[in-house]
Amino acid sequence: MLTLRKFVAVATLCLLGVVSGCTVESVDAPKDKGGSDAPKADSTGGTTDRRIQVDGSSTVAKVAAAVQEQFEEKFTDTKVALKVTGTGTGFKEMIAGRIDIANASRPVKESEKADCEKAGIELVELKIALDGLTVCVNKENDWVDSITVAQLKKIWAPGSTVKTWKDVDPAWPDVPVALFGPGEESGTFDYFTEVINGKEDQITENYSASADDNVTITGIAGEKGGMGFFGCAYYFSNQDKVKALKVSATDDAAAGVAPTAETVRSGDYKPLSRPLYIYVKKSSLERPEVQDFVRYFLNDGQSQVSAVGYVPLHDDELKASRDALEAALKK
């Protein structure tokens, strides 16, 4: 039986061009002037095969695209082919041996790691930024500013009977709830369902799924009773369209914490603060262009983390990522 969520997810994915194995580029990713797959001319007028294949998280793509743009301005003989299909699909592409780097908004699963090992692929895990997964509502929503994890679960859990905001709290109006969020291949989906609903991949059938966070924002903005979730960078760049809720890990909504760079970095924004990653295929690090790009990401590229709206790592975390890269290069 085709559920409402699955029907809308398929319809949305069709519109975005991700059905039948196709991929979608983030609308925020810069486009190469000669087309996303066009080879660059080198200084002799020929073309280069210094090409890095990157796929995965739409959350990470926002900073990866900014780093890509800067990197290609400096390393003009290298092309970074950035695609956005979700964390889960990114790991599938890595397992299949089709990419060099998987962007991920959650840690690699043990099953994914095992599949990589079976394929002879060794992963180098590098933390690159911090994120506060943000719960947003329509700008016209004037009845709630702070929400508890228990209330979120009541709305988003499998089998939820919530139809209106009044069903969540009797003091709230009888306005229909309209839910929007990422699809099942998303690391954001995995993270949210685990920390809010208590089990990864378990969620209400009554929501509209999309592989594009901008589609989620548009959905929330178009429905008075709209609600959805995505990485904080998408909220910070769309504060004119949606309203972020404070989130309380206790049953006291008044104790809710707003998603800000400070609360995410301190860990006070619970339980929705999380790290973001890139996973590099170790054998790809034998190629100088991949070494250059990853080193750039962990050094000069870090300026783009806050520029696009994410939260910089603590110094010790960034050092750990740099050390992990150098250790992988020595082996």
Q: Quickly name the level 1 CATH class of the largest domain.
A: Alpha Beta
Q: Please name the CATH architecture of the largest domain.
A: 3-Layer(aba) Sandwich
CATH superfamily of the largest domain: Periplasmic binding protein-like II
- For the termini, the CA-CA separation is 51 Å
Helix content: 25-40%
Spatial extent as radius of gyration: 20 Å
Main beta sheet strand tally, sense and closure? 5 strands, mixed
Q: How many helical elements?
A: 12
Which range does the strand content fall in?
Answer: 15-25%
Please explain how this structure is put together.
With 331 residues, the protein is α/β, with parallel strands linked by helices. The protein has 2 domains: 14-130 and 278-330, 3-Layer(aba) Sandwich (D-Maltodextrin-Binding Protein, domain 2), CATH 3.40.190; 132-273, Periplasmic binding protein-like II (D-Maltodextrin-Binding Protein, domain 2), CATH 3.40.190. 36% of the residues lie in helices and 18% in strands. The protein has 12 helices and 12 strands. The chain has helices at 4-16, 58-74, 87-95, 110-118, 149-156, 187-197, 213-221, 232-236, 261-266, 288-298, 303-307, 315-330, and strands at residues 51-56, 79-82, 101-104, 123-132, 134-138, 146-148, 178-182, 208-210, 226-230, 242-244, 246-248, 273-281. A 5-stranded mixed beta sheet has the order 2-1-3-12-4. A 5-stranded mixed beta sheet has the order 8-7-9-5-10. The radius of gyration is 20 Å and the shape is elongated. It starts with a helix and ends with a helix. The model is unreliable at 6-47 (pLDDT under 50).
